[in-house]
TrEMBL record:
Protein name from the UniProt record: 16S rRNA (cytosine(967)-C(5))-methyltransferase
Compartment(s): Cytoplasm
Residues given in the record as S-adenosyl-L-methionine binding sites: C264, A265, A266, P267, G268, G269, K270, D288, D315, D334
EC number: 2.1.1.176
InterPro entries, alphabetized: MeTrfase_RsmB-F_NOP2_cat (IPR049560), MeTrfase_RsmB-F_NOP2_dom (IPR001678), NusB-like_sf (IPR035926), NusB_RsmB_TIM44 (IPR006027), RCMT (IPR023267), rRNA_ssu_MeTfrase_B (IPR004573), RsmB-like_ferredoxin (IPR054728), RsmB/NOL1/NOP2-like_CS (IPR018314)
Catalytic activity field: cytidine(967) in 16S rRNA + S-adenosyl-L-methionine = 5-methylcytidine(967) in 16S rRNA + S-adenosyl-L-homocysteine + H(+)
Family of the protein in this entry: Belongs to the class I-like SAM-binding methyltransferase superfamily. RsmB/NOP family.
Function of the protein: Specifically methylates the cytosine at position 967 (m5C967) of 16S rRNA.
Gene of this entry: rsmB
Residues of the signal peptide: none
GO BP annotations, alphabetical order: methylation
Protein source organism: Lysinibacillus louembei
Length: 452
């Protein structure tokens, strides 16, 4: 879409949603990025912004379910844009009860006329009106349990099977349902500049209601508004971050004055959290493989008035050959991962991830972890985290790591919210979206044993 320079926004929310969905479908863009760019570029107002987001994400989230509903009504194969138009219209009819179904049908017909011709418009009209009259079939009709869950929650069947095998049907079903809920808007209070109560008051002055989380004290949940547009954000009182991403810095718990290394740091969400925890005293060296991403860390530290972070472009798999060995008190590896925990924010990844993509990730993660061992002081602590839910990737990496590095020992995760503390086992915690209404996340902690 962006390649062809086609204008996404013409003042019509459904039309814009269709353009975004088509671009995502053609792998020209990620849904979250294109949606954000569109909203910023065209300065789309709050009401339209909310509906555009809801329709785009909702349609993507429920794509497989919508196709199941549409199948009996669509004869033969239709062009991709027509199928997406049908999906987004049926999404409104079926899931957005506040939108009168006839309005959704009329809009679809107008779009079909504009983008296609009268024949397509009549077909779209016929299909949607038939659905209005007859209703959609229930997913309960699907005999096979795995297939039923996959279609009903719109996840690929291979992933559902993999999840059920690992986590059981109950946990899996809850997680899959959670993946289809809108993501909460959470921010982290910059405790160098404000207390949670002060940050709440600042946001209140800008008309945004913020509530302190029941899990982590520095986390606020926002209702309405856009955190990134607030003065509280621009002046560095808050950072936009999912609550689960606030766990690693809490678990590593670096103290003021320490020398800390963040090996996969960009854009700096956790680097800045570490510095806040250290009261801006000591040092944090923030590495990332991609030099251009380091600017994002610098922007964040400048905005938050953090002075102890230095950045360096470095491949974590080679870091020990460049940095001084055994010179860091604490190390964080927030590793590149399969990202299956963030499906609420990036629903398109449900349909694009392939099992083959996972294998190489563990090799990369183990390479970075091995370098961390050499760089860590004896008695130093290491935290490894990912934003994914996959036992083989997370626990598999931990097991392989411990087997290869006998001087490293898994330790109890400290500073977890009480509600999560008992979910950990053997120094590892898999956070499911249902635990804190957050992204899915994984954290593990280790200490380097002192050698005699
Ligand atoms: C999950 S993201 C980190 C997010 C970051 N910790 C935060 O909280 O904002 C993983 C990062 O690892 C970087 N990365 C990938 N491979 C790497 C490597 N071999 N060495 C260092 N960084 C790497 C990616 O560029 C990406 O920025």
């Amino acid at each position: 879409m962006t390649k062809k320079k086609q204008q996404i926004w013409n003042g019509n929310v459904r039309d814009a949603a269709l353009s975004i969905l088509l671009a995502v479908d053609k792998n020209q863009a990620y849904s979250n990025l294109l949606l954000h760019q569109t909203i910023e570029k065209y300065k789309i107002e709050a009401k339209d912004r909310a509906l555009l987001t809801e329709i785009t994400y909702g349609t993507l989230q429920h794509k497989l379910t919508l196709d199941y509903y549409l199948a009996p009504f669509v004869r033969g194969k239709v062009e991709a844009w027509v199928q997406w138009l049908l999906r987004l219209s049926l999404f409104q009819m079926h899931y957005l009860t506040r939108i009168p179904p006839h309005a959704a049908v009329n809009e679809a017909v107008e779009i079909a006329k504009r983008r296609g011709h009268q024949g397509i418009a009549s077909m779209v009209n016929g299909i949607l009106r038939s659905i209005l009259r007859q209703g959609v079939r229930s997913t309960d009709e699907i005999q096979d349990e795995m297939e039923r869950l996959a279609i009903a929650t719109s996840h690929p069947q291979w992933l559902v099977e993999r999840y059920i095998e690992t986590y059981g049907i109950e946990q899996t079903a809850t997680m899959l349902a959670c993946n289809n809920l809108p993501a909460k808007q959470t921010v982290r209070v910059n405790t160098l500049k404000a207390t949670p109560a002060e940050a709440i008051a600042l946001l209140e002055q800008e008309g945004i209601t913020a509530v302190q989380s029941e899990f982590l004290p520095e986390c606020l949940t926002l209702t309405g508004g856009q955190a990134a547009r607030t003065e509280a954000f621009k002046k560095g009182f808050i950072t936009i971050q999912d609550e689960s991403s606030m766990l690693p810095a809490n678990v590593l718990n670096p103290q003021p004055g320490m020398r800390v290394l963040d090996m996969c740091a960009a854009p700096g969400g956790k680097t800045t959290h570490l510095a806040e925890k250290m009261h801006n005293q000591g040092s944090v060296l923030a590495l990332d493989l991609h030099p251009h991403k380091l600017e994002l860390i610098d922007e964040n530290t400048a905005r938050l008035d953090i002075e102890i972070v230095q950045t360096a472009p470095l491949d974590g798999r080679k870091a020990a050959s460049i940095l001084q060995k055994e010179s860091f008190d604490a190390i964080l590896i927030d590793a590149p991962c399969s990202g299956l925990g963030v499906m609420r924010r990036k629903p398109d990844i449900k349909y694009t991830k392939r099992l083959e993509d996972f294998a190489n990730l563990q090799v990369i993660q183990l390479g970075i972890l091995a370098n961390a061992v050499e760089l860590l002081k004896p008695n130093g602590r290491l935290v490894y985290s990912t934003c994914t839910i996959d036992k083989e990737e997370n626990e598999g990496t931990v097991q392989a790591f411990l087997a290869a590095h006998p001087m490293m020992e898994a330790i109890l995760l400290e500073n977890l919210p009480q509600q999560l503390a008992e979910e950990q086992h053997n120094g590892m915690l898999q956070v499911f979206p249902q635990h804190m209404d957050s992204d899915g996340f994984f954290v593990a902690a280790f200490v380097k044993k002192e050698t005699n």
